[in-house]
Amino acid sequence: MNISKSEKLFKEASKYIPGGVNSPVRAFTSVGGTPLFIKKAKGAYMYDADDNKYIDFIASWGPMIMGHAFEPVIKAIQEKVLDSTSFGAPTELEIEVAKIICDNIPSVDLVRMVNSGTEATMSAIRVARGYTGKSKFIKFIGNYHGHGDSFLIKAGSGAVTLGYPDSPGVTPGTAQDTLLADYNDLESVEKVIAANKGEIAALIIEPVPGNMGCIIPEKGFLIGLREICNRENIVLIFDEVMSGFRLGFGGAQATLGVDADLVTYGKVIGAGMPVGAYGGKKEIMSCVAPTGPVYQAGTLSGNPIAMVAGLSLLQHLKDHPEVYTELDEKCSRLEKGIRKVMENSGKPFQLNRLGSMISLHFTGDPVVNFESAGKGNNESFKKFFHGMLNEGIYLPPSAYESWFLSNALTMDDIDQTIRACEKVISEM
Ligand code: KE4
Prior knowledge:
Blueprint: H1 4-16, E1 38-42, E2 45-48, E3 53-56, H2 71-80, H3 92-104, E4 110-114, H4 117-132, E5 136-140, H5 157-161, H6 172-175, E6 178-181, H7 186-195, E7 200-205, H8 221-232, E8 235-239, H9 251-256, E9 262-265, E10 276-280, H10 282-285, H11 304-319, H12 322-345, E11 350-354, E12 357-361, H13 370-373, H14 378-390, E13 393-394, E14 403-404, H15 411-427
Parallel strand pairs: 3-13, 5-6, 5-7, 7-8, 8-9
Antiparallel strand pairs: 1-2, 2-3, 4-10, 9-10, 11-12, 12-14
Helix pairs in contact: 2-11, 3-11, 7-8, 12-15, 14-15
Bound molecules: ligand KE4.
């Protein structure tokens, strides 16, 4: 495959941007090779600078749930942008986006718009601290909640992909308030609480992690966390930046039947525009300025172009629940096809899937937490990634990421992906 233009662009980009990218996981660091510079995308397909076509399983890391250049989103942006791009004053659109979230997510009475998932999680922790008057919080090893200082301790996604799960620059003063537990292990949570009795403001979790690959919460785990947080007066925060409005319109809370006290969103709610949000019970969210003393702000928060994009996508997903059934059918077909290929190959593998989140791990042991995810053979993943890329299938360039399906994928695209998988695995 000719990628000479991407190679040239990568060299040029690296002169002006750290690592030539504006987000590390895009740099292909853990899989090697040159990151592809994408020129355009439509539906389920992306086209790089050399006009190579790819079936897209990144979907911009989640937002493109209806595929690229989704008509209603494009039309909404084209119309709204003529009214200017930002006012720095409240707009009716922000009410509509807040309403669609509050009316459809039972645990959310009030919601605040921000500009990224990172802003959402940082703000949620601050609100939980302000509300409880306590400083510490629990996160899970391998969970990624964005690049806020407090979260870059044993973080997943790009942090672990690049080998810095504990980032330099995070001060000991910050790190001391971040407590660590193991995903799918209630005992590890109880131990941390016993050692920090009465000092813990919040517990934040990816209810369905996508940043160690996709990991399935074991039966009783999330409800166990709910019970522990009730008992200990700890604010339970579901980081649904990835799973929100993807695992169903109600996200992981509705799909798995456990309500959090605060929830964070991103990705899908902006339809590819920079949007994050955090929301929850009135009693807690009323602490947020200007109604309460917990300060959080943003020049472009609730930006009209981002709001109209997000609103048009959320409205479509709400009016078309069949999207989630179709996504589940497509991802189930993909899972069955890849499982058959891997079983026939005799290679050790795990395939984790929930809804339209799926990941393939080259290990014989079940992948249930960060430690077991780390047992995946990265050399095999690298070969698989590049083999699939050469077959025109664009997967996330890291073994520590979930794949994201869009509903623009056809069953033919799924079958083509399975055939590519069979060819690549047979050549490994
Ligand atoms: P952003 O600040 O990147 O919008 O969101 C941070 C975030 C928070 N919480 C969860 C569960 C997330 O998955 C993310 C961001 N996800 C990564 C992909 N694993 C974004 C891709 C990137 O870093 O470029």
